[in-house]
Each structure stands twice: as structure tokens, then as C-alpha cells.
Design goal:
Elements (H helix, E strand, L loop, with lengths): L19 E6 L7 E5 L12 E8 L7 E2 L5 E4 L6 E11 L3 E8 L1 H15 L3
Antiparallel strand pairs: 1-2, 1-7, 3-6, 4-6, 5-7
């Protein structure tokens, strides 16, 4: 069951939920900001301060998940985009500028399934 952000008052801000597509700083690339889907849920340590995410890119790769309309719950990205499940990072809350959309639960499940395939001990 997806949990949606809970708005708080005072010095705390909204915590992003699993499946949120956020625009945040790009710590590794040449872009100032880029989109990421959040894969972590509210059980991750430091939820609301840190999130486990993967990269969204406009580069089509056979291993990537294309974000077609059936993979998006709400919102959209301006160009055809792909989730790269192998490109994982931790986003700090302060790095996130906005949330333009949200993926479906099936998108999160597929990204996590692909990531598991890369990390599984054989």
C-alpha cells in the first residue's frame, strides 16, 4: 500500500513517498538537476532526510524501464524518459527541488526486481 506524503508544520517539511518522482541535484553528472524515482519506503533509516533513488535519463537502454503513461500514476516528464535501476544513489532531502510526478507501484516493483537481479548472490 502506497503512503502519500504527510505535511507537517514547523521546521519540518514534507517527506517524499515511495514512487515519487523528484527533481534533485545531480551529484555525478553534467546537469545541475535531474529526475529520480524514490524507491525507498518509510521504513528506511532517516526517512524524510534521506531517500534511496535511481536515475531517470532520456537515454534509451535495453535494460532501462521506459516511463510510458502506464508506468506513471500522476504527472509527466517533458521528454521520453527511462529509469536506470542499476544507477542507485542516496538523495538528501535538501537536494530535492520539487516533485513533478509519481510512478505506479508496478514501476517501483519492476525497478526493485531489476536491482535485485544485479545484487543477488549466485
Amino acid at each position: 500500500m502506497r503512503r502519500y506524503p504527510i505535511w507537517t508544520t514547523g521546521s519540518r517539511s514534507v517527506a517524499y513517498s515511495q514512487g515519487a518522482i523528484v527533481i534533485a541535484e545531480d551529484p555525478f553528472g553534467n546537469n545541475a538537476k535531474r529526475p529520480y524515482p524514490i524507491l525507498s519506503n518509510d521504513h528506511v533509516p532517516f526517512h524524510g532526510q534521506e531517500y534511496i533513488a535511481t536515475v531517470i535519463t532520456t537515454t534509451a537502454r535495453s535494460e532501462a524501464i521506459e516511463l510510458t503513461d502506464n508506468w506513471l500514476e500522476r504527472g509527466r516528464l517533458p521528454r521520453t524518459s527511462y529509469v536506470s535501476p542499476w544507477s542507485v544513489l542516496t538523495l538528501k532531502h535538501w537536494m530535492i527541488a520539487k516533485q513533478p510526478g509519481e510512478t505506479t507501484d508496478a514501476t517501483v516493483h519492476e525497478a526493485r526486481r531489476e536491482l535485485d537481479a544485479y545484487l543477488r548472490i549466485e
